[in-house]
User: Fold this.
Amino acid sequence: MGNNFSSLIAVSLVLVVVFSGHLQGSRESVSESGAALSDPYQIGYRLPEDAVVTYPSSNPLREALRPIPKTAVFKMEGWSLWDPSLIKVEETYHLFCSRWPKSEDYSFDSGWKRSHVIRATSKNLFGPYEFAEVVLHPSKHPWANQGIHNPKVVKVEDRFLIYHLAIPQWSTGFAYADSIEGPWVPIDHPIVDANNPALLMHDDGSVYMVSKHKPKPTQDGKWDACLRAHSANQINGPYDILGDGRNRLPYNCELEDPTIWWANDQYNVICTDWEGKVTGVQKPVIYYTSKDGIEYELYSKIPVWTQEEPIYLEDGSQLQVSRIERPQVYINEVGQFTALLVAVGIEARSHDYIVIRPVDKFVPTNSP
Assistant:
């Protein structure tokens, strides 16, 4: 374990140097690499040279990542798994995710639009996880009768809530249960018109939410992925858009797949870097913070985790994947960030399995 960990640190340091140095380069250097030229979304750096960044030359969260136990890889033969979300109830960890037949995963716009939600359990945060049940299925849903996708599970007072993308409505649905084992009862109407939402409840019962917003007209002829902020006096809404409705990310950066938690008296949002405006590569995991939920600051130009680097297991072996998406955080009982969950695609457009990566008890600060 010691040698493997040392190797991981060495690789991480090399990647930090590479990303730090490359971020100083011109846009022409990005084009020369082929990234910006080969992708229709024009992947490449867009940050100004004087961009305000909490950690300009390091990334403490990245440094807290650890190698992955083999047991922390959750697969199901014959199925595509995506959209992980995790909650601990008493002594058991409950992993929720979306699922659809692997036979339907033949193109990017195929099986996931007909997905359903499952639950798996483990006595250990890092597995192994065993399939427990189908939780929500479009065939039994009162209105999301095509697909139930991107589920996230939270506890709301004495009940549990799964919020999810509802297809074909493309809005957010809620389902409640008195027990983590169900039964789950969907609310009979959409709660909010939002895509990729992430909710955070305050102690007074009010709710803050971030989501992905695709404004029209777009800036570059492709669809933009902006961060929109919302609030509500109580969990079931109604939800109001905060501020003037514009992109809350600095320098007009873009995102997908936000997840949120409260620490260090601030909102903490992990997401993916749509179009690579921060990092110069497509959809790595990055990190923003905000004291007021309106103005966000980039935590680091260096990505937390990219699709282009090896994924090391504890035994020194590597996972061969083409992409990581849908990052989710697990925060333990004392407020420490101890696991980063992602969905993994083996091939460029495939959806395959869930990875739960250990994080060394990260708690954010804003003092480089």
